[in-house]
Specification:
Elements lengths: L4 H21 L3 H13 L4 H25 L5 H22 L4 H18 L16 H21 L4 H12 L3 H25 L5 H25 L3 H23 L4
Helix pairs in contact: 1-2, 1-3, 1-8, 1-9, 2-3, 3-8, 3-9, 4-6, 4-8, 5-10, 6-7, 7-8
C-alpha cells in the first residue's frame, strides 16, 4: 500500500468499522477486513489481505477485550479454553489456507459466512447459566468446538468471532453479551496465530495493518458502548450479528464467483 492521503483515510475508516464491529458483536472484524482491504483500500493479493487483516483484527480484539472485561462480560475460563485449544486449530488451518488459490478461498469464505448466518437463527441462550454453573463436560465440549473453530479461522484467515460467538452459545448457552465479550480473547489469539504464520511467508503489509489498528481503537470504544446498551434487548444483538454476516457473504460471493 502507498502512503498517500486517500489510502490513509480509507485504511483508517475501514479500521474504525472493524473495531466498531468487534466491540459491538465480538466478531465480524475479519469478515470485513479481507473484503475492505481488497475492495476499498485496493490491496490486490488475497493472501496479503488475509495476513494483514488477521494482524489488525488481533490487535483490535485485544483492545475491545479490555473494554468488555471492565464491564464483567468475560467468562475467563471459557475464554482461555477457546484461546488455547483454538490456536492449535488456527495454526493448522492457516497452513492449509496458504496452499489454496486465493479467489477460491474467498468464495468458500462467502459460503461459510452464509451458512453461519442461517445457523445463528437457531442459537439460543439459557438464562439460568452462569460462569460458575458450567461442568467439566461442558468445558470438554467447548474444547472440541474450539479446535474445529480454530481450523476454520486459520484456513479462511479470520479472527473467528463470527464462529466463536455461535459456538459459545452452542457449547454453554451463555447470554449473548457474555459470548461477545468472552469471544474476544480467542479472536485476538486466533488472529495473532494466523498473522504470525502469514508474516513468516511475507504476507503482511505492516503499514496498512498499523493504520487499521489505529482506526480500530476509536471504533472499538463506540462498538462496546453500543453492545452494552443493546444487551437488554435480547434479540437485537443476535439479529445485527446475523444480518451483518449475511450481507457481507452476498457481497463476497458476488465478487469472487467469476474468478473462483
Amino acid at each position: 500500500m502507498d502512503g498517500s492521503l486517500p489510502h490513509l483515510l480509507l485504511a483508517l475508516g475501514s479500521g474504525s468499522l472493524i473495531g466498531c464491529t468487534l466491540g459491538l458483536i465480538g466478531g465480524g472484524g475479519s469478515i470485513l477486513a479481507t473484503p475492505l482491504l481488497m475492495y476499498v483500500v485496493g490491496m490486490r493479493d488475497v493472501h496479503t489481505a488475509i495476513g494483514t487483516g488477521a494482524l489488525a483484527v488481533s490487535a483490535n480484539a485485544y483492545f475491545n477485550l479490555a473494554g468488555h472485561a471492565t464491564k464483567g462480560h468475560v467468562w475467563w475460563r471459557c475464554a482461555i479454553i477457546f484461546a488455547i485449544a483454538g490456536s492449535l486449530g488456527a495454526y493448522l488451518g492457516s497452513s492449509l489456507g496458504k496452499l489454496v488459490n486465493g479467489q477460491s478461498l474467498l468464495f468458500l469464505f462467502g459460503l461459510l459466512m452464509m451458512l453461519v448466518s442461517f445457523l445463528m437463527r437457531q442459537a439460543r441462550c439459557q438464562t439460568d447459566v452462569t460462569a460458575q454453573s458450567l461442568t467439566i463436560g461442558t468445558h470438554g465440549k467447548t474444547t472440541l468446538i474450539a479446535i474445529a473453530t480454530g481450523v476454520c479461522s486459520g484456513f479462511f484467515g479470520i479472527g473467528g468471532g463470527f464462529l466463536i460467538v455461535p459456538a459459545l452459545l452452542l457449547a454453554t448457552g451463555m447470554p449473548l453479551i457474555n459470548a461477545v465479550g468472552t469471544s474476544l480473547l480467542a479472536v485476538g489469539t486466533f488472529g495473532l496465530t494466523t498473522a504470525i504464520n502469514y508474516a513468516a511467508s511475507g504476507f503482511v503489509d505492516w503499514l496498512t495493518a498499523l493504520y487499521f489498528i489505529a482506526g480500530g481503537i476509536g471504533g472499538g470504544i463506540i462498538g462496546t458502548i453500543g453492545a452494552c446498551r443493546l444487551a437488554t434487548h435480547r434479540n437485537t444483538l443476535a439479529q445485527i450479528f446475523r444480518w451483518v454476516i449475511f450481507a457481507v457473504s452476498l457481497y463476497v460471493l458476488a465478487r469472487s464467483y467469476p474468478a473462483a
